[in-house]
Amino acid sequence: MKVSTEDSNLQLINIYLAYLLDNRGLSKNTLAAYRQDFLHFNNWLHYQQLSLIAVDSAVISRYFIWRMTENFKPSSSARIASSLKGFYRQLLIAKKIQLDPCFGIQFNKYTRPVPAVLSLQEVDKLLAAPDTTTLIGKRDKAMLEFLYATGINITELIGLRLSQVDLKKGLVYLDESGVPSRTIPLTDEAIFCLKKYLSSAGRGAKKQPDIDWIFLSNRESMMTRQTFWYRMKFYAQQASITQKVSPQSLRIAFAAHLLNNGANLQWVQSILGHCEVHSTQYYSGLVTKLD
């Protein structure tokens, strides 16, 4: 049976994504972004009646000129340029192509904007904002403390299960597919707040079967990213923090505060789950505001 150009293109994309998963240890979200990039480029090629292995530098240049005329964000164009360079480099190594169509092209450089970093004082105000006389307040307080104590991302936080946390040893165990497994120590405050929340009257009162999530929604299911983002926005307003605050803000503050106080770069890299050290070095360049 003859394989169509479209099927052949998708096969090449899937092979490269599998290579990234096996050799680069990328997270599910990053792999999904790569896949979206390749599919977008592949769709554009389809309308040009071209295949992935039948392009040259002129086609690549034309594609990015088209992106500029369509007002795509520079950040997304920079990411897809990086994706395509890696993709065609691997095709060249595998001898699927004879020339790298990205070689010699001067892609527009994108400078990653420097995010504002919460100061220690702002972090303290944010962590103190929840009303811990309520069940929701105890949950949110524990989640905020957990974020700042560990530097984990929001997906890892809301997906935490009881089996992943050892409160006696003060450790949390993370083993997400595509991210290096890691064991992270908890602060005394995070342990205290988590114990207080887990022992709260009303938590698990509906006795849903197989509840293993640590942080439950009002319906006693796993919380959504959007719900917690709105909770953080509310607490930032309560704490009179003027800059934009998100779950990523506490991850950034965690890393920046540690590095600015002399923490070992490789240790912070292992805690954050970064596969490459340059991702962690980015945080060392962030200067926090003086309290």
- Rg is 23 Å
What is the CATH topology classification name of the largest domain? hpI Integrase, Chain A
Give the % helix.
40-55%
Give the SSE string: HHHHHHHEEEHHHHH
Low-confidence stretches: none
**Distance between the ends:** 69 Å
Q: What's the number of extended β-strand segments?
A: 3
Shape, please?
elongated
Record the SSE blueprint.
Layout: H1 5-24, H2 28-47, H3 57-69, H4 74-93, H5 120-127, H6 135-150, H7 154-158, E1 165-166, E2 171-174, E3 182-185, H8 188-198, H9 225-238, H10 247-260, H11 265-272, H12 277-284
Antiparallel strand pairs: 1-2, 2-3
Describe the structure.
With 291 residues, the protein is mainly alpha-helical. It has two domains: 5-93, Orthogonal Bundle (DNA polymerase, domain 1), CATH 1.10.150; 120-284, hpI Integrase, Chain A (Orthogonal Bundle), CATH 1.10.443.10. The chain is built from twelve helices and three strands; from the N terminus they run αααααααβββααααα. α11 packs across α12 (277-284).
